[in-house]
Amino acid sequence: MILAKVMGTVVSSHKEPRLEGLKFLILQNVDLDGQTTGGFVVAADAVDAGVGEYVLYATGSSARQTTRTDQKPCDAVVMAIVDNWEVQGEFKYKKGKDD
Amino acid sequence: MILAKVMGTVVSSHKEPRLEGLKFLILQNVDLDGQTTGGFVVAADAVDAGVGEYVLYATGSSARQTTRTDQKPCDAVVMAIVDNWEVQGEFKYKKGKDD
Amino acid sequence: MILAKVMGTVVSSHKEPRLEGLKFLILQNVDLDGQTTGGFVVAADAVDAGVGEYVLYATGSSARQTTRTDQKPCDAVVMAIVDNWEVQGEFKYKKGKDD
Amino acid sequence: MILAKVMGTVVSSHKEPRLEGLKFLILQNVDLDGQTTGGFVVAADAVDAGVGEYVLYATGSSARQTTRTDQKPCDAVVMAIVDNWEVQGEFKYKKGKDD
Amino acid sequence: MILAKVMGTVVSSHKEPRLEGLKFLILQNVDLDGQTTGGFVVAADAVDAGVGEYVLYATGSSARQTTRTDQKPCDAVVMAIVDNWEVQGEFKYKKGKDD
């Protein structure tokens, strides 16, 4: 999985019918300090994540292993909202402290 | 999924029989301002997208999760035409405004 | 799918038994002008492509969606020989004209 | 598979229900001398690996081929803790010797 | 598939039970002249390849399409030992001649 920050949304009214109802989020990968790095990806939202939140997303066929994305042409899904992460015993991010 | 712009088409008369009838689009990835970045990919068209339109495409096994691409040797599919996208609450692109 | 040019072949007599009879092609990716770019990949041949031809190849599980590659440890397949491609309404390559 | 070092953990209380109970590890890839290189990935833990250990992780659909990750939206899994590795007959790392 | 050279091995005694008996090889990708390029990957061995041999490896779900790797958390497999390869009609490598 990749650690990322929700930056925005993409709207499409003309799409593969199976995608009806899915929300598409714009994500930017972050480094271990939580800073966004270059590039972005668009992922389906399986957990009602909001703009500004840190999340994990999964790609490939694993992106279809949620109730919302099952059997859909979707190759990236936000499957967890992050509370905190630590590196070598030190917290790098705690939700609520920085937000 | 990846945000891209339809740039052109590829034609093949000699191909795996299962691919008969699929249209192949040349896509270039775009940045959050809608500008094309380096490189391109060829994707099957599941939504009748036209040259110049912004689209989302899915890759890998997820590219076979549309009626048109099911069980075909296709690893990228355009599965949505984009109406608009926004980043941190600000519209970066609205269809019809710039097109 | 990726646009590439067939550059050569790889021969293996000692391999996974299921691969018996498959031909392995050396491919180099090309840019939209048909010029080879850095790097190469080895793909199974599903369409009897020859050295010098422009082709499309598919990767991942989609590479197993041909009669020849079904259920084989093969992650890239040439599934189409390219006749022509165009970008924004202009032909960039037509088979027979340049070959 | 990729050779990596366990650097930390990610905690999420709000996630896809199927992920309940999975531990998420922060991994950094290492070179053949065991030094971490740039970038990191988050992987599910199938083998109770600890911070500081060298491990192998598998990605894609193969990351779901463990008892803990089966049918879950998980695209990377730590599936082995490394005892040692050697390159051209010379040990580059032996567990216990350097730890 | 990717053309690579077998450089060494990785040993793990604590791993996902399904991996018992699989041998892990360290591979480095090579260019068309057979010279190793940067980076390496760890792959399961399906063909009893030895250190110093040129091989092809497959990644992703295709890496599970061998008798030894079926349904295992393995995302790369050596599925062929290379005898020779040629580019535009010229042999770049012949086994036995250079080894």
- What's the assembly state of these chains? homopentamer
Query: Do you know the CATH architecture of chain A?
Result: Beta Barrel
Strand order in the largest sheet of chain A:
1-3-4-6-5
Cα-based radius of gyration of chain A, to the nearest Å: 14 Å
Number of helices of chain A: 0
The CATH topology of chain A is OB fold (Dihydrolipoamide Acetyltransferase, E2P)
Within CATH, the superfamily of chain A carries the name: EutN/Ccml
Main interface: chain pair and counts: A-B, 32 and 31 residues
Shape of chain A: elongated
Report the sheet with the most strands of chain A, covering strand number, pairing sense and barrel closure.
5 strands, mixed, barrel
Please give the CATH class of chain A: Mainly Beta
What count of structural domains of chain A? 1
Tell me what portion of residues of chain A adopts beta-strand conformation: 35-45%
What pattern of helices and strands is seen along the backbone of chain A? EEEEEEEE
DSSP E strands of chain A, number = 8
- Class by alpha and beta content of chain A: mainly beta
